[in-house]
Design goal:
Blueprint: H1 2-17, H2 25-57, H3 74-79, H4 81-97, H5 104-117, H6 121-134, H7 138-154, H8 158-169, H9 176-193, H10 196-209, H11 213-229, H12 233-243, H13 250-266, H14 272-284, H15 292-305, H16 309-321, H17 327-344, H18 348-359, H19 369-399, H20 403-428, H21 436-443, H22 457-471, H23 480-483, H24 499-502, H25 506-512, H26 522-527, H27 533-556, H28 561-574, H29 581-594, H30 599-609, H31 614-620, H32 628-646, H33 650-663, H34 670-684, H35 687-700, H36 704-718, H37 725-739, H38 742-754, E1 765-772, H39 773-778, H40 782-793, E2 800-805, E3 810-818, H41 821-834, H42 842-846, E4 849-852, H43 853-862, H44 865-876
Antiparallel strand pairs: 1-3, 1-4, 2-3
Helix pairs in contact: 1-2, 2-4, 2-5, 4-5, 5-6, 5-7, 6-7, 7-8, 7-9, 9-10, 10-11, 11-12, 12-13, 14-15, 15-16, 16-17, 17-18, 18-19, 19-27, 19-43, 20-22, 27-28, 28-29, 29-30, 32-33, 32-34, 32-38, 33-34, 34-35, 35-36, 36-37
């Protein structure tokens, strides 16, 4: 009986211990044990798994200083939603079932961490604040405050983060683990604030407090990078060597050794051959097979320091062809090639294509994206106008030749294309280093140097060209000669009754024989040559515009006044009646001033040929007020002049307009003032002058609304169908006076001055869909719907889609890139009218917006959508 009674006693004791109401010793032992080794243990284990997944998902960019914390990707958090749900269940049960346990506060902390990772910041903040006030355990209180500090730093809420830092600095009894996390978060705070010294100091303290070898290695590497950028090479070398301890990943170990050698010897060594040998040995090492692009890139940087630009460029081109681990490295390679082309070789066309290649390998969230995009817009414009000049000029010259001469030029071009293809085949067939098996095959008649036809790429290319020259486009069919009876003697093309070939889809032919897409035929080349005077004039108009736009671009954006002068001189020489002549003179005046040329010549021409032009006023009044103050004053004067005009005081209105243009010659109001002056001309000048001024204004003004108004005025004058003049003037007054109230202008100027965003219509733009975090989780098909929409409407635009957390409360879906604001606006209109998705409501579509890449980087730093929307409404809507 005794064993049975003993067992019953144990069961009864355990049964009574399960109660969470009785605070007895037995109860406390049971609940503490159960809570710790079930809820808390499993919650911590799952949290560690999520943080490990975040670390593995992150791709380190060793060209930049490594981040303190691994970035949190919303997509990864969505994938781990079930694990976060498990943490909530474990923690909630521990709180509910084990109320008298000493691990309740830890369970609350896990609930706060689950909210933090799911971007529920208000809930997370409330939980951490609650623990700080109510927890009796310093360990938990301090841990909660440190996590609250990180959350504030994430959200750029630096004042609150600083308050927490100050509060913790006065706390005592912070254990070693929490002190480590405190200093690591402090480094993160200083990093976000751009305080390098504070970041270094905090990381040094964190390094002293951790025993985790893996963590020590990474912190040492970050410190080495920081010291290297500060020019403290000795310290950097020491920390790079320290980062090699603790069995770091091979890639970090590789970069630590590479950068350590750079700061210690490579950058300072006079033994150039030894440095080059060092890179060559790294390249040959089989362990570095996936890092060869990095090695060639670093060697290219060294050659640039040695002023061997040609060798550096060759190395970068080789690096671009290497397979690598990190696509972003290709972005750095192409970016460096673009820099060489632009800054050293002044080859703007190559720069554009290198920047295109760089963008193909980087994402909008990458550090270098903004810089590359900012440059790309002006190079896109350059190439468009440069190629327009090259093409149109050639076509116009060809149009002046006889048909026989045109045919000879076309044949010569085709021969050059054939020779180019053969040269490319020869380059591909360049002998590579052969191994023993290649040599054995060579002795057997199948080596790389054998003349066997299908092993000889040059012979195959030559054969394809000869076949195409003799027989033309042929599908890969058996007995093709029997199917086609007629051939042209010169190119071997089929006669019109040859249905087998003529009905075949051309793209299918080109897929079967890629040569067809590379060698044009004479007919297609001759068809491009303009035949009529109308076609030639259209080409000349394109030339005129491109000469002007290139001259303008080269002066203002590329800072190349001498090249700008060449294009603008060509414009005014070739097209003396160009409607851009006044502005061309003005830019020539500025460019000659910059190079100490004959600027006065163009000032005289402006005064002689365009005495009433705002550009003339600007030249004559170099000390005129500019910027927002000029805009404000000219707006006030414009309002006064319009009131004088509307009251019938036309002479007073004109005098006020002219004095305003002289005092503030080039502002956003200039086009409005000029149109008002033309309206005055319609009242007091003869009709011919009025008509001439309207026609010239329509040709030279870029504002579409003002051009539309001027067209209506011209239609009213000529008697054609359109609005009459009085109606136009009434509309103009009602709309303009309403828009140009001085108070509103002052408000706009204040807003512009306060706003961190700037109007950049020529920059690359992004289209953004903003959703709440909860709504984004439900919108799983949105990206797929966007891809379908793009395939149907923008198949050739190569648009890319993606999503990211703007902050913990908002997720943005991105469509990019658009080369300028105009194309982005066109996309927005199409999107608003035609895009349908179950993931978006009409109100969500209304909240979509456009943003230039420069402003996107600013938005990504500030995380304040409402602030940007105010700017967006004033600029884009």
């Amino acid at each position: 009986m005794r064993p049975i009674l003993f067992r019953l006693f144990i069961i009864a004791t355990l049964f009574t211990a399960c109660s969470s109401e009785k605070n007895t010793f037995t109860n406390r032992v049971f609940h503490n044990t159960t809570s710790r080794y079930n809820a808390v243990f499993y919650s911590q284990q799952i949290l560690d798994e999520i943080e490990d997944a975040i670390e593995k998902d992150h791709r380190e960019d060793y060209s930049q200083v490594l981040p303190i914390f691994f970035p949190i990707d919303s997509g990864l958090i969505d994938q781990n939603a079930d694990k976060l749900k498990d943490i909530r269940e474990f923690a909630s049960k521990a709180i509910e079932w084990h109320k008298i346990s000493k691990w309740v506060d830890d369970s609350y902390f896990f609930l706060g961490m689950a909210d933090y990772y799911e971007a529920k910041f208000d809930d997370a903040s409330n939980t951490f604040r609650y623990l700080n006030v109510n927890s009796k355990k310093k360990r938990v209180r301090h841990k909660s405050l440190i996590q609250l500090m990180r959350q504030f730093t994430d959200l750029n809420n630096y004042d609150d983060a600083a308050y927490v830092i100050d509060y913790l600095s006065k706390e005592t009894g912070i254990n070693k683990e929490n002190r480590y996390h405190l200093y690591k978060n402090l480094a993160y705070y200083y990093d976000k604030r751009g305080d390098v010294n504070g970041k270094i100091g905090a990381l040094d303290r964190a390094l002293e407090l951790t025993k985790d070898k893996k963590e020590k290695s990474r912190i040492n590497f970050i410190l080495a990078q920081l010291y290297q950028r500060e020019g403290l090479d000795n310290l950097a070398y020491s920390y790079y060597n320290e980062s090699l301890k603790g069995n770091p990943p091979y890639e970090r170990s590789f970069f630590a050794q590479l950068f350590a050698q750079q700061v210690a010897e490579l950058n300072k060594s006079r033994d150039v051959k030894r440095v080059r040998d060092y890179y060559d040995n790294l390249y040959k090492d089989s362990k570095n097979l996936d890092l060869r692009d990095v090695i060639l890139y670093e060697k290219a940087l060294f050659e640039l320091k040695m002023d061997d630009v040609e060798e550096a460029e060759n190395l970068l081109i080789r690096a671009a062809k290497e397979e690598g681990r990190n696509p972003l490295q290709k972005g750095y390679i192409y970016q460096k090639l673009a820099e060489i082309s632009y800054e050293i070789k002044k080859d703007f066309r190559s720069t554009k294509y290198y920047l295109d290649s760089a963008l193909a390998n980087i994402r909008p969230t990458d550090v270098i994206y903004a810089e590359v995009n900012e440059k790309k817009g002006i190079f896109d414009s350059y190439v468009i106008h440069f190629e327009t000049i090259s093409k149109n000029d050639s076509l116009i010259r060809l149009a002046q030749m006889s048909p026989e001469e045109q045919g000879l030029v076309a044949e010569m071009f085709i021969k050059q294309e054939e020779q180019r293809l053969i040269r490319e085949a020869e380059e591909k067939a360049m002998p590579k280093s052969t191994g023993i098996f290649d040599n054995l095959l060579a002795f057997g008649g199948r080596g790389s140097g054998e003349s066997f036809y299908f092993d000889n790429s040059v012979a195959m290319q030559q054969g394809s060209i000869d076949f195409y020259r003799n027989w033309g486009s042929r599908p890969l069919d058996d007995n093709w000669r029997r199917n086609v009876q007629g051939f042209q003697a010169d190119r071997g093309t089929t006669t019109s009754d040859s249905e087998d070939v003529s009905d075949m889809d051309q793209s299918q032919l080109e897929n079967e024989n890629p040569l067809l897409g590379q060698i044009p035929d004479i007919e297609s080349l001759l068809a491009q040559i303009p035949k009529t005077e109308k076609e030639i004039n259209a080409l000349k108009l394109g030339l005129e515009e491109s000469y002007f736009e290139l001259g303008k671009l080269l002066f203002f954006d590329f800072k190349e006044p001498e090249i700008s002068i060449e294009y603008l001189e060509s414009l005014i020489t070739t097209y003396p009646n160009s409607n851009k002549k006044a502005e061309a003179y003005y830019i020539l005046f500025l460019a000659n001033e910059e190079i100490n040329g004959n600027a006065n010549l163009y000032a005289q021409r402006l005064n002689r040929e365009f005495p009433e032009s705002p550009f003339t006023y600007s030249v004559n009044n170099p000390d005129a007020v500019k910027g927002n103050q000029a805009f404000l004053e000219s707006s006030r004067k414009y309002k006064e002049a319009y009131e004088q005009y509307y009251a019938g005081n036309y002479s007073d209105s004109r005098n006020l307009i002219r004095s305003t243009l002289e005092s503030y010659p080039l502002t956003k109001n200039t086009d409005r003032l000029l149109l008002l002056d033309i309206m005055v001309s319609g009242k007091i000048d003869d009709q011919d002058r009025y008509k001439s001024r309207l026609e010239n204004y329509i040709q030279t003004t870029e504002n579409p609304e003002l051009v539309k108004m001027a067209r209506n005025m011209l239609l009213a004058l000529t008697g054609e169908k359109g609005q009459d003049l009085d109606q136009t003037e009434t509309i103009s007054k009602e709309e303009t006076v309403e828009e140009e109230k001085v108070e509103e202008i002052e408000e706009e100027i204040k807003s512009e001055e306060d706003s961190p965003y700037r109007e950049n219509p020529d920059q690359t733009h992004i289209f953004v869909i903003s959703l709440s975090a909860d709504k984004a989780k439900e919108s799983k098909n949105l990206l797929a719907d966007l891809e379908t929409f793009h395939m149907q409407n923008f198949a050739s635009a190569r648009l890319r889609t993606g999503n990211m957390n703007l902050n913990r409360e908002e997720v943005i879906f991105i469509v990019s890139p658009f080369s300028n604001a105009e194309k982005a606006l066109s996309y927005r209109d199409k999107f608003m009218n035609d895009f349908n998705s179950n993931s978006l409501e009409p109100s969500d579509k209304e909240n979509c917006f456009l943003i230039s890449i420069g402003n996107f980087q600013e938005l990504n730093r500030r995380k304040n959508l409402n602030e940007y929307r105010q700017f967006y409404r004033s600029v884009y809507q």
